[in-house]
Amino acid sequence: MSESSTAPSLQGHCLCGAVTVTARAVRGQLEACHCRMCRRWGGLAFLGVQCGSGVTFTGKEFITRYASSGWAERGFCSRCGSNLFYRFVPADNYSFPAGLFDDIGDLALEEEIFVDEQPAYYAFSQEAVRKSGAEIIAEAEQAGFTFDK
Ligand SMILES: [Zn+2]
Ligand SMILES: [Zn+2]
């Protein structure tokens, strides 16, 4: 994943302010992940901003990282419990919840993934590309990543 140098800098922080994040979106869009893990983690779909590896944190001592699968970790603030990121480890790609940032500019929801795991009790009204979990895993495998399923 290439780092974008032209995207505006995004500023975010957890509820208590112990952890701050400075990052740039590497894709000009939001992605919603409807998978069971993201919904258990955050209560609803995860609306992520992919930011690659060019990420700066303050308050690192308050960040707890949890290996949620063989290829991903999720971070949260150990003081207030705010979810901070999903990191796809093989690519060192951080994805942050859109709500963590003060302002995400004109980033809009353009892709929804793991739609096969989406429950019937909610839906987004935006027009977005919808992909199943199998499609997403196939795309990642095509990009050279391997998964122990
Ligand atoms: Zn906090
Ligand atoms: Zn997910």
Overall pLDDT, averaged? Answer: 94
| Low-pLDDT regions | none
CATH topology: Metal Binding Protein, Guanine Nucleotide Exchange Factor, Chain A
Number of strands: 11
List the domain count as a whole number: 1
The CATH architecture can be named as Beta Complex
Helix content: 10-25%
Largest sheet strand order: 6-7-8-9-4-3-10-11
If you compute it from the alpha carbons, what radius of gyration comes out, rounded to the nearest whole angstrom?
Answer: 15 Å
The span between the termini is 23 Å
Main beta-sheet annotation:
8 strands, mixed
Number of separate helices: 2
Strand content: 35-45%
Give the ordered list of helices and strands.
Answer: EEEHEEEEEEEEH
Bound molecules: zinc ion
What does this 3D model show about the protein?
- The protein is mainly beta and 149 residues long.
- It has one domain: Metal Binding Protein, Guanine Nucleotide Exchange Factor, Chain A.
- The chain contains two helices and eleven strands, in the order βββαββββββββα.
- The structure holds zinc ion (2 copies).
- One zinc ion binds at residues 33, 35, 37-38, 46, 114.
